C-alpha cells in the first residue's frame, strides 16, 4: 500500500467523495460562523457529504489553499471541482443553482 503525502491525500479525498466540505469543526459542531452557514445550507438538501475538520488536520489546513487556489475556509467541492467558500455557497443557494448542482450528485 502506497503512503500518500498530504497533497496526495487531499486529492484522493476530493476524488473519492462526490461532495466534500473542508471546514472548521464538524457538521454537528461547526467552529466558525462561515462553516456553520454552509452546513445549515447543505442540510436543506438532505444529501450525504464528507467533511474534513481542518482544525484537527493542520497539515491539510496548510496545504489545501495551495492546491485549490482558495485562501479561506470552508471550501466546498462537488464532483472534484471547487465550488467555493461560504459566500459562493450562500449565493448559489439564493439563486437556485446550488439545488441544481446538488440534484445532479449521486447519493
TrEMBL record:
Binding locations of [2Fe-2S] cluster: 32
Domain Glutaredoxin: 19-83
UniProt superkingdom: Bacteria
PROSITE patterns in the record: GLUTAREDOXIN_2
UniProt xrefs under Pfam families: Glutaredoxin (PF00462)
UniProt xrefs under Gene3D superfamilies: Glutaredoxin
InterPro entries, per database record: Glutaredoxin, GRX_PICOT-like, Monothiol_GRX, Monothiol_GRX-rel, Thioredoxin-like_sf
Keywords assigned by UniProt, alphabetized: 2Fe-2S, Iron, Iron-sulfur, Metal-binding, Redox-active center
GO molecular-function terms, A-Z: 2 iron, 2 sulfur cluster binding; disulfide oxidoreductase activity; metal ion binding
UniProt family annotation: Belongs to the glutaredoxin family. Monothiol subfamily.
Protein name as annotated: Glutaredoxin
Top-level taxonomy: Bacteria, Pseudomonadati, Pseudomonadota, Gammaproteobacteria, Pseudomonadales
Amino acid at each position: 500500500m502506497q503512503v500518500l503525502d498530504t497533497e496526495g491525500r487531499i486529492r484522493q479525498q476530493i476524488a473519492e467523495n462526490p461532495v466534500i466540505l473542508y471546514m472548521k469543526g464538524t457538521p454537528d459542531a461547526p467552529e466558525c460562523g462561515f462553516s456553520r452557514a454552509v452546513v445549515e445550507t447543505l442540510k436543506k438538501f438532505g444529501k450525504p457529504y464528507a467533511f474534513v475538520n481542518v482544525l484537527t488536520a493542520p497539515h491539510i489546513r496548510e496545504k489545501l489553499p495551495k492546491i485549490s487556489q482558495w485562501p479561506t475556509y470552508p471550501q466546498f467541492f462537488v464532483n472534484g471541482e471547487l465550488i467555493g467558500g461560504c459566500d459562493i455557497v450562500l449565493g448559489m443557494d439564493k439563486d437556485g443553482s446550488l439545488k441544481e448542482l446538488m440534484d445532479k450528485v449521486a447519493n
